[in-house]
Amino acid sequence: MGGLSIKAGIVGGAGYTGGELLRLLLNHPNVEIAFVHSNSQAGKPVYETHKDLLGDTDLYFTDELHQDVDVLFLCVGHGAAKQFLEAAQLPASIKIIDLSQDFRWNESLKEAVVTGCEREFVYGLPELQRESIKQAQHIANPGCFATAIQLALLPLAQQNLLTEEVQVSGITGSTGAGQGLSPTAHYSWREGNISNYKVLSHQHLHEIRRTLQCMQENEVPNINFVPYRGAFTRGILCTSYTRSHLSQAEAEELYGSFYSTHPFVSISKSTPDLKQVVNTNKCLLHLQKQGNYLVVTSMIDNLVKGASGQAVQNMNLLFGLEEQAGLRLKASAF
Amino acid sequence: MGGLSIKAGIVGGAGYTGGELLRLLLNHPNVEIAFVHSNSQAGKPVYETHKDLLGDTDLYFTDELHQDVDVLFLCVGHGAAKQFLEAAQLPASIKIIDLSQDFRWNESLKEAVVTGCEREFVYGLPELQRESIKQAQHIANPGCFATAIQLALLPLAQQNLLTEEVQVSGITGSTGAGQGLSPTAHYSWREGNISNYKVLSHQHLHEIRRTLQCMQENEVPNINFVPYRGAFTRGILCTSYTRSHLSQAEAEELYGSFYSTHPFVSISKSTPDLKQVVNTNKCLLHLQKQGNYLVVTSMIDNLVKGASGQAVQNMNLLFGLEEQAGLRLKASAF
Amino acid sequence: MGGLSIKAGIVGGAGYTGGELLRLLLNHPNVEIAFVHSNSQAGKPVYETHKDLLGDTDLYFTDELHQDVDVLFLCVGHGAAKQFLEAAQLPASIKIIDLSQDFRWNESLKEAVVTGCEREFVYGLPELQRESIKQAQHIANPGCFATAIQLALLPLAQQNLLTEEVQVSGITGSTGAGQGLSPTAHYSWREGNISNYKVLSHQHLHEIRRTLQCMQENEVPNINFVPYRGAFTRGILCTSYTRSHLSQAEAEELYGSFYSTHPFVSISKSTPDLKQVVNTNKCLLHLQKQGNYLVVTSMIDNLVKGASGQAVQNMNLLFGLEEQAGLRLKASAF
Amino acid sequence: MGGLSIKAGIVGGAGYTGGELLRLLLNHPNVEIAFVHSNSQAGKPVYETHKDLLGDTDLYFTDELHQDVDVLFLCVGHGAAKQFLEAAQLPASIKIIDLSQDFRWNESLKEAVVTGCEREFVYGLPELQRESIKQAQHIANPGCFATAIQLALLPLAQQNLLTEEVQVSGITGSTGAGQGLSPTAHYSWREGNISNYKVLSHQHLHEIRRTLQCMQENEVPNINFVPYRGAFTRGILCTSYTRSHLSQAEAEELYGSFYSTHPFVSISKSTPDLKQVVNTNKCLLHLQKQGNYLVVTSMIDNLVKGASGQAVQNMNLLFGLEEQAGLRLKASAF
């Protein structure tokens, strides 16, 4: 495994998730970056866009697609991934890891697999279906809020314990909205501010419900989700609660057991805070029984475990590498 | 009314709410500050503690109580207000406005009045009971989260429309925790961070439930509240939702009518954000019907409408002044 | 004076300085806002752009100019003020207060007065030339960095004590760059970040040098200025130092005397911080003698004393009102 | 080299630099952490103090010193390192890397070596004296501001080009002040704030001056330094300027050549910003000729290149490892 070198291509390399993927792959022991595709930045050095990479890479963006790669990461916008694949005529042998939502769910399915563009995309949440991912050819990488909420609820769904309405609130950092300039991305507006958006109507709810229903036999109840825009750049913290007969000890036993073989999920006994996971591929969970309710706090870095880090984790699984390869990241902590 | 001058004393003037009260009263057209009491800072200029007041006042903190005042604001900690009144032997003619929680609620009452220290304290939420406040002698000033949540739910309670569980999440700025140094007040920890605390067990729930039950005939349902510590200094934003038969138009009609005579509450048609109210005495509400749920977003400045500004509003009512006197504040907006 | 009502018009009312001016004038006891002009927002309520004004005003933006005003504030961009005046054909009786840099300086002048568009514009720094402003018809309102640096150096210039090079560094909040969307205004970039710009080449140096030369007989020495973009929204803090024979006591005496009649400038004995002046029209100064150097720290709110507040201060002087009318603002402090 | 395993001990492991060192050493391919000493936290898991390490390590703090180590990192406060060494009676064979200022400079020396506690400490700035470090037994790790300023000026000193006064301003994040609770560390104070401190009198000036004088034959001129506390947690950005005869091209040639063999220093052609280096061991430099002045902007992460990362870099050199081992860190970038 030490000698294995995977040739990787990146499409949409000038955006936030593309940049984060570059930061990870440049230090990955088993990856060689074959090319970084960008229509807008073609011909320019990668470090002119991702300025922290100055001194780390001499790569240039290109607008040509090289087919001599083992894996292709699609870091383009929602809708654009499907368009790209339809136009690109790639050989089926190239594994695709798509970070958009284009192949994440499909209303009619009971399995976390979606067919599209003549390919079958396995939903890339390793804590849900690591073995299916290992066997897969193509991956639909999960959404950021969807990752944080699913990891909070998966153990309950596996035991058919989601029986009453679930309430979720969550706060996301600004990088979740990408690098586009918009009024809610303006520093003078967002600094020291907070606002909610898409209350009870966030698009990730489809993805979450589908996943939970794959695990749970009885029907998954209503999930209400209030998302907030927070005054920080990185990370997502969610609080989920539902009525439950589990005691504190039973809940800890259930979650501890479920995640015991998953290296990126940890259960915190003490109240955690978001910066414990920022700039890492970790998900941190905290469990509290309050009256009849089980409260699960979950947190991830939206650009790492919520996007590019999880994409690398999926790549590791696709190619039989150690799951943590290239993902032992120093937390920023402050 | 222009000539009326109220002599005001402040006890606990060195803390955050005391400072905010000073900022307001120094510019109030009908108030003369008789003294500012502080045990810890006695003998020092007020501007050494509240440094923004340099150039605005030559007042010194004192550890003596002058009884020649019309109104006394208690800006001391929870528990300390009761202790102070028990020890101070103040004439009953001095009106008291207590910013602590010591006289806010009493399990057995169905009215928003609490008796203690040989006095009767009217709960000082003007949008709940302005007329009672006008007739009152002493005021228990509401809590900050309690203000934001009550203003979101009062019109429903008045119409007996709180029939199913209410879910609330809210984010507060750091000044809500006062000026004490603590790990969660450390800049290096809190900057760019988010965490929840007292999930489903916040102490303001008693106060909220009592108020709503005063208004609503049928029993007020369970209220679940998830509070968050946000990475900002001022303000509280809450999202409350419950199942409701009201349509969007009916909800807007109900809330618009309820608050039409209340100068500090406005209903925003568009999605609001916290900084619209920061550094003002306003409460902003936003209504959305989503499926079967009515979602109410509410926001205030925790130190103004959530504390010292509301105290001044109550003082205005107690003394027959215009409700907005001294409270037409320039928003900071950014 | 209580009865005096000034009819004011605002041109360019949809930007940051226009909004800040509205916040001030709506609460000014002697002003009636006649109209708010905006090409981009004409026909829309003012509170849709300046959202904190919801509940405070029913004004609409207009694209028509009413000539029945006493004073017109120009809150348009640099260059656009001159263009506007050339096109608008306003009667000379309307007083103009221009917040752009179009009439602030003129290379050839030794006086802080600029002629342009058939008008004479007096440079509106009251601490420099309050009497000239009182007699003036039109005002060129100073720049924000220029205000902070000039107030740090004026007393030295008056005594011909600027004899050796002056070093200045200063940090500005994001609102100084206006509401335009740009990469350095993106929250994900600016949060927790710092960068310098226009090092030793900032355009305000012309304005500063001209003012100081008006006061000082001998030639004003070289002024080096390093501006920084800070991770905050409001305010400017500058540190200026130069070799000086003044002792600490002599410096304090000089500055105290110079500013004794100027209500918005205070000298702090202790080390100050920016938030002492945020959301006020104050300038705070701090003096330190270090070896052979006199160090002057100065700070203002860039949108208030650095723009719209100073414009109101100038209006007060133009119309014989009390200098502080409408400018006794509650600091945000946090 | 792949097989080499260095046994490392950490003294003062509960503070910020101790935590940062742990984050680095846990992922270092050639290090085994023998023990983490802390008087205050002895007996508790390391992850209770450094909460981001939950899931990464099962280490406990200890109050015992194990002597079976190859290297000992001292992460205790200024003064405490000397006290520790005097009391500890360590064998001379254990290499010491001291992060305090206790052995950084000595007024009388012309060499960057200090003798104390019966040991000789080589000043650990690899870009100054990499070969001496490789031969050293003990290291005095440089200060954070000192690192940023020295790296900005070293190439000039080497060429005897520091002939006129140098002006420096710099802004530091809050972690530079450690984890102690203090008024200037309070979130409600520091958020959105800026202030200067120790103007023209910062203690790192001794260290800087000594280093530059080691390199330059003629006397190093006066260096004026204005430090600021910034509203961010990590990083230092400094702007230094001095009169220089070098052209832009000559300066770039000089700096490019000087740093060509130093893997952590890069020269940016475009204006850089602090977040390009946050959470990395890099120093980024930018050169601008403005009139007669050469302006050098330099930036580092104060906890990494300014403290624990540089300590690891020094350890790598002491033990003949690759200089970048364990220091290829993913930037946080946002």
UniProtKB/TrEMBL annotation, chains A, B, C, D:
Pathway it works in: Amino-acid biosynthesis; L-arginine biosynthesis; N(2)-acetyl-L-ornithine from L-glutamate: step 3/4
Main location: cytoplasm
UniProt superkingdom: Bacteria
The keyword Thylakoid belongs to this UniProt entry's keyword annotation: no
MF term (GO), any: NADP+ binding
Active-site residues from the entry: C144
One Pfam entry name: Semialdhyde_dhC_1
CDD domains registered for this protein in UniProt: AGPR_1_C, AGPR_1_N
EC number: 1.2.1.38
GO cellular component, one term: cytoplasm
Record domain Semialdehyde dehydrogenase NAD-binding: where: 7-136
Reaction(s) this enzyme catalyzes, per UniProt: N-acetyl-L-glutamate 5-semialdehyde + phosphate + NADP(+) = N-acetyl-L-glutamyl 5-phosphate + NADPH + H(+)
Gene3D superfamilies in the cross-refs: Dihydrodipicolinate Reductase, domain 2, NAD(P)-binding Rossmann-like Domain
UniProt keyword annotations, A-Z: Amino-acid biosynthesis, Arginine biosynthesis, Cytoplasm, NADP, Oxidoreductase
GO BP, one annotated term: L-arginine biosynthetic process
PANTHER family: N-ACETYL-GAMMA-GLUTAMYL-PHOSPHATE REDUCTASE, CHLOROPLASTIC-RELATED, N-ACETYL-GAMMA-GLUTAMYL-PHOSPHATE REDUCTASE, CHLOROPLASTIC-RELATED-RELATED
Function: Catalyzes the NADPH-dependent reduction of N-acetyl-5-glutamyl phosphate to yield N-acetyl-L-glutamate 5-semialdehyde.
Protein name: N-acetyl-gamma-glutamyl-phosphate reductase
Organism of origin: Pontibacter flavimaris
